[in-house]
Amino acid sequence: MRALAVEDDPRIQRDLAAALSGAGFRVETCGNGEEAWFLGDTEDYDLIVLDLGLPGMDGLAVLKRWRAAGRDTPVLVLTARGAWTERVEGIDAGADDYLPKPFHMQELVARARSLVRRAAGRGGATQTFGPLVIDANRMTATLRGVPLALSALEYRLLAYLALHRERVVAPSDLLEHLYGDDDAREANALEALITRLRRKLGPGIVGTRRGFGYFLEAA
Q1: Which of 167, 168, 178, 152 is nearest to 210 (CA)?
Q2: Domain boundaries in the chain?
Q3: Could you say which of 3, 99, 206, 207 has the lowest number of CB atoms within 10 Å?
Q4: Please, which residues have CB within 8 angstroms of residue 100's CB and are 6 or more apart in sequence?
Q5: Strands (E), 13-165
């Protein structure tokens, strides 16, 4: 899953990136409103964490421009502003959730995961595909009750396919959401990752629709 963390305080920005990365997100960061607006308008994210007190363009103005342009990415708003009227203004502008500063990173991660599940039409943190069970909170998977030894990238691939279980996910979509700018993003890297995951899962779970992409097929 791909997330954008928008925060002008360098320390908080680093903490956000570390917390979200530890929760399985591929995280990009920025610290001003103009760049945030451009990234959110041109890139495809599963989640945006947005501070309201930004230089260049206020976070509320950024959010309003995204929503006016039809961008429906889940947005978790952060702010040091304490008035309830400002919280209402943020939600009315299109925020999906609101977290006042100071906050605990564990709460932010829980809210982030919940927003992503909600956007995909998923209620709980656990998903079942026949003998396969994926726990998004613990970032684990079991097959017939036996824990799977998955690498971080293998888990992220499995979790992304599970999140979008009702559609075939294109290779380009997987490359965009799994790999950072410094990682290999060629199709053969993705094919190798799919092969490694299939070895651990066995047949009948990760399916391929030739020419379209991949999906989880276990009933």
Answers
A1: 168
A2: 2-120, 126-216
A3: 207
A4: 78, 79, 80, 81, 82, 87
A5: 26-30, 47-51, 75-79, 97-100, 126-129, 132-135, 140-143, 146-147
CATH node for 126-216: 1.10.10.10
Burial of 142 (0-12, 13-18, 19+ CB in 10 A): middle
Q: What is the pLDDT of residue 82?
A: 61
| pLDDT surpasses 80 at 46 | yes
Cβ pair 158, 197 in contact under 8 A? yes
**Is residue 205 within 8 Å of residue 132, measured between CB atoms?**
yes
Cα–Cα nearest to 218, from 203, 202, 205, 200: 205
* Domain 126-216 in the same topology as domain 2-120: no
**Mean of the pLDDT values across residues 129-148?**
90
Task: Report the pLDDT value the prediction gives residue 8, as an integer from 0 to 100.
Answer: 94
Q: Kindly indicate the confidence band of residue 184, based on its pLDDT and cuts at 50, 70 and 90.
A: low
Query: What pLDDT is attached to residue 183?
Result: 53
2-120 has CATH 3.40.50.2300 classification: yes
Q: What angle do CA 105, 107, 112 make, to 5 degrees?
A: 95
Residue by residue, DSSP assigns 81-117 as ---HHHHHHHHHTT-SEEEESS--HHHHHHHHHHHHH
Mean pLDDT computed over 90-106: 88
Tally helices (H) and strands (E) across the chain: 8, 11
Question: What's the whole-number mean pLDDT along residues 77-88?
Answer: 74
∠ CA 125-84-122, nearest 5°, is 15
